[in-house]
Specification:
With 837 residues, this protein is α/β, with parallel strands linked by helices. It has 4 domains: 6-144, tt1808, chain A; 160-277, Ferritin, CATH 1.20.1260; 306-618, Rossmann fold (3-Layer(aba) Sandwich); 636-800, Adenine-n6-DNA-methyltransferase TaqI, Chain A, domain 2, CATH 3.90.220. The protein has 28 helices and 27 strands. The strands form 6 sheets. Strands 10-9-8-11-12-14-13-15-17-16 form a 10-stranded mixed β-sheet, sandwiched between helices. Strands 1-2-3-4-5 form a 5-stranded mixed β-sheet. Strands 19-26-23-24 form a 4-stranded antiparallel β-sheet, covered by helices on one side. Residues 795-829 form a coiled coil. InterPro entries: DNA_methylase_A-5 (IPR003356), DNA_methylase_N6_adenine_CS (IPR002052), HSDR_N (IPR029464), Restrct_endonuc_typeI_TRD_sf (IPR044946), SAM-dependent_MTases_sf (IPR029063), T1MK-like_N_sf (IPR038333), Type-I_RE_MTase_Subunit (IPR052916). It is an enzyme of class 2 (transferase). Residues 280-536 form the DNA methylase adenine-specific domain.
Length: 837
């Protein structure tokens, strides 16, 4: 991907959004990179932006410099040279570095004052006519009236990293100055809200603030007037509370006390245009404050990446909301019951408004229909709830700035029977899009009345959210698209919930998300999307048969660090997700740009005893391979194991001793089984003979192996990221037992070589089956004995062929380990050599 030069970056990221807000049409009113010849030493060059308003003769030009570069007299002279060049001859020009904007009179070489003030702004498209008339009448004029323009001076939008840094500085200042950060999020949010309102008034002509204070003016006050800054801010808040219907978001008194804190935050916020920051950046920056000030409260909030929200909308139907509004659907209701700071709702609102506006431009609807639809979208469609007061208040603020839908945001426990935004007794939700909190326990927060709402009793927050989502949907039409921890889709404990979901809903799609989806937020959870439609009446006996789309997304266009992937074609990706992923009329197994999908009959999924939903379990390619292997004579682990397949049993930690005091080795999945299929004795734990004898006695009484290991047993690590799937043959003479994370397989030596079986499980098609079968999500994955039993083994032609294959494989691994050891030795020698210099 070609890297743009620094001047172009200033134009694209900083100036064009501002010009658009000032009324200029970026495609018709501006020319870019216009070549010029000048009469001085700047003999050849390119004008960054030439403002023409579609005419042959330009009106003014903009010369851009590297972002944040200090503007010099030399830069001014270059702009002046371009302004006087042949064929250009504009009466004034603009010089900018993306932070400062200076307007110069071409004749006098001095800065122009607008309405008598040295304000950093560019005239609006409407004001430009009067400016040109003034300069035609007097080319030397440097104090030009632009209709008492009260608009804010230019301020740059910030990318995500810089915006996060700004929020971090403000948070740190509150902590340092106030000596208390308990209310940092709510207080900072109130001040940010004032800044956002200021920008809203600057952009929307029909929105007028009830006070005259402005952040950029307050920011210029010296430290000695910090008290005045504080008083002004408090006065602004009082004015809004008294005169605005949405003043409720500011009713809780601000807790900041020190005037220096007010002054610092006002100064920092005054230097940014939040309108020109992306929705993603603002949401992520809010997320910083949420995590920094609410840490340890186990509320489960974190920011949902915009790419994921766009994906969910593409799956549901990009224009579904806009079309429903235009068709005058009565009582359309879209809910996020775990809305956080409102990222889902703000995006959906803005996207729907933009779609309705485009429909007007393309003459699909009348202006009256468009205005009516916008009013409906802003006021009556979108609803959100969050349990945390400060977070809910921020969601209200975000919605106000986006379009004043704040009255539908509630601070409430969504799972309580008293929740106002949804109720299972009056199911009225048309669409629920959400990312509910992962891993929360609701055992202490719910009353008996609250628990009575849920047919499937559980303390797990996700299980309860899913049930209430379904029960709050309109029967026969309501839909859900939700992020979900993948453990909900595959664990044994989740089977009753999954069966209930299949009875209550049509499972339209399951979408496995990339591992890095939430890693930018330091969240490492494997997750998926569920797309459901509530049935008119439950299908208790699974009588209906239909296709379910099971799919996987390879990338959403960013890395685990949050950095965007260069060259990622977002438009192509979202278009294919919207049009092809759910296309069940084509190939059963289909793939596209960073995704693949296949369809599974609902009857197959309902008949499966696990009722699992996850992609890896239903992967058609793997299932076909397993079927073919069975037909070719493959044998299951259950058939090969001379004992009942089972896990070991971990002794109490107090029974562990060192090797010299011990009798039997305790084989642990993490530390005693290597990736190369060997048993590791280094720093192993042991138990005394008396403890070992107790296991022998219990095994005899129960007529089972319990966790006793015999020489030749195959030991399979069966839990945990990074350890599950490791396998070794126990080939030591030392007595041993397995801990609770190790599965013991005692292979029938007449059928299979133990080393071959071990290698097949850790490196062969057995490892593919293990990956398909394990349950849980990141950090909490496991392979049950039943799942081990169902693994099908390719026994090859003979035991001799098995032994030869395994011997060759292990020789290569030994060579790899020796090469690695030699490389480490060379590295050590190099380091030692450097230390002698």
């Amino acid at each position: 991907m070609t890297k743009i030069n620094t001047e172009t970056e200033t134009v694209v990221k900083k100036i064009l959004p501002y010009l658009q807000r000032r009324g200029y049409d970026l495609s018709q009113d501006l020319d870019f990179e216009t070549a010029v010849n000048t009469t001085d030493r700047y003999t050849k060059g390119y004008i960054d932006i030439l403002v023409t308003l579609g005419k042959d003769k330009p009106l003014f030009l903009i010369e851009a410099k590297k972002i944040s570069k200090t503007l010099t007299v030399k830069d001014r002279d270059q702009g002046l040279s371009y302004a006087n060049s042949k064929g250009i001859n504009v009466p004034f020009f603009v010089l900018t570095n993306g932070i400062d904007i200076h307007c110069y009179n071409t004749k006098t070489k001095t800065k122009i004052q607008w309405d008598g003030k040295s304000t950093e702004k560019i005239p609006t498209k409407e004001q430009l006519k009067a400016v040109i008339r003034t300069l035609k009448a007097n080319p030397h004029e440097t104090n030009i009236a632009i209709s008492r323009d009260l608009s804010l001076p230019f301020r740059p939008g910030l990318p995500l990293r810089q915006l996060n840094a700004l929020f971090y500085k403000c948070h740190s200042a509150i902590r340092k100055i106030e000596k208390n950060e308990e209310y940092a999020f709510s207080d900072f949010s109130k001040l940010l809200f004032l800044k956002l309102l200021e920008e809203k008034a600057d952009i929307e002509s029909d929105f007028v603030l009830p006070y005259s204070y402005r952040f950029h003016e307050l920011a210029q006050k010296p430290a000695s007037e910090a008290d005045q800054v504080k008083d002004s801010v408090l006065s602004m808040i009082e004015s809004i509370i008294d005169q605005r219907a949405y003043g409720a978001v500011l009713q809780d008194k601000i807790k900041l006390k020190n005037p220096k804190a007010f002054q610092y935050i006002i100064k920092e916020l005054s230097g940014v245009s939040f309108y020109d920051c992306s929705l993603d950046s603002k949401g992520a920056a809010f997320e910083y404050f949420v995590r920094a000030t609410l840490k340890g409260k186990k509320l489960g909030q974190y920011f949902t990446p915009r790419e994921l929200v766009q994906t969910m909308l593409a799956i549901v139907g990009r224009k579904k909301i806009a079309n429903a509004v235009i068709s005058n659907s009565e009582g359309l209701k879209i809910l996020d019951p775990a809305c956080g700071t409102g990222g889902f709702l703000v995006f959906l609102m803005q996207e729907t408004i933009a779609q309705v506006t485009d429909m007007l431009k393309s003459r699909e609807i009348t202006k009256a229909t468009c205005e009516k639809a916008k009013k409906t979208i802003k006021e009556t469609i979108f609803f959100g709830s969050d349990a945390n007061e400060g977070v809910a208040a921020s969601a209200k603020m975000n919605m106000i700035i986006a379009g004043d839908g704040h009255t539908n945001i509630q601070r409430e426990d969504s799972l309580a029977v008293s929740a106002k935004n949804w109720n299972i007794n009056t199911p009225d939700c048309d669409l629920i899009l959400t990312n509910p909190p992962f891993g929360t326990s609701e055992s202490e927060s719910l009353s008996n009345a609250d628990r009575a709402q849920f047919p499937i009793q559980s303390s797990k927050g996700q299980y309860l959210f899913l049930q209430k989502m379904i029960l709050a949907l309109k029967p026969g039409s309501g839909e859900i698209c939700t992020v979900i921890d993948e453990g909900v889709l595959n664990t044994e404990s989740g089977a009753p919930l999954r069966k209930w979901i299949l009875q209550q809903c049509r499972l339209k799609a399951v979408v496995s998300l990339p591992n890095e989806t939430f890693k930018p937020n330091k969240i490492n959870v494997k997750s998926s999307l569920l797309f459901l439609e509530r049935r008119e009446t439950p299908d208790l006996e699974f009588e209906e048969t239909y296709k379910i789309t099971i799919s996987k997304i390879e990338s959403l266009g960013y890395l685990g660090s949050g950095e965007k992937i260069r060259g990622f074609e977002s438009s192509k990706f979202f278009d294919e997700i919207a049009t092809k992923l759910l296309d069940q009329d084509g190939k059963a197994h289909r793939a596209g740009y960073n995704w693949e999908a296949f369809d599974v009959s609902s009857s197959r999924l309902c008949k499966d005893k696990t009722n699992r939903f996850d992609f890896k379990y239903w992967n058609t390619e793997v299932r076909t391979q397993i079927k073919n292997l069975k037909n070719a004579g493959g044998v299951s682990i259950k058939e090969l194991n001379l004992i009942t397949t089972a896990r070991g049993s971990s002794p109490s930690a107090e029974n562990y001793v060192d090797e010299e005091d011990g009798y039997a080795l305790v084989v642990k999945s993490g530390s005693n089984i290597s990736r190369q299929g060997k048993i590791i004795k280094d720093e192993a734990d042991y138990i005394e003979k008396s403890v070992y004898d107790e296991y022998v006695e219990k095994s005899t009484e129960q007529k089972s192996n319990l966790n006793l290991i015999e020489k030749g047993d195959v030991l399979l690590s069966s839990t945990g990221d990074g350890t599950l799937g490791k396998c070794a043959v126990y080939d030591l003479d030392t007595p041993a037992i397995a801990d609770g994370h190790v599965t013991i397989i005692r292979p029938d030596l007449d059928k299979v070589d133990p080393y071959y079986l071990c290698d097949y499980l850790r490196l062969g098609f057995g490892s593919v089956q293990i990956t398909r079968s394990y349950t849980g999500s990141t950090g909490m994955i496991e392979l049950t004995p039943d799942q081990v039993d169902n693994i099908v083994v390719d026994l090859k032609e003979s035991k001799q062929a098995q032994k030869q294959l395994s011997k060759k494989l292990r020789a290569l691994e030994d060579k790899y380990l020796k090469t690695l050891e030699d490389a480490n030795e060379l590295q050590t020698q190099a380091a030692n050599l450097m230390q002698l210099v």
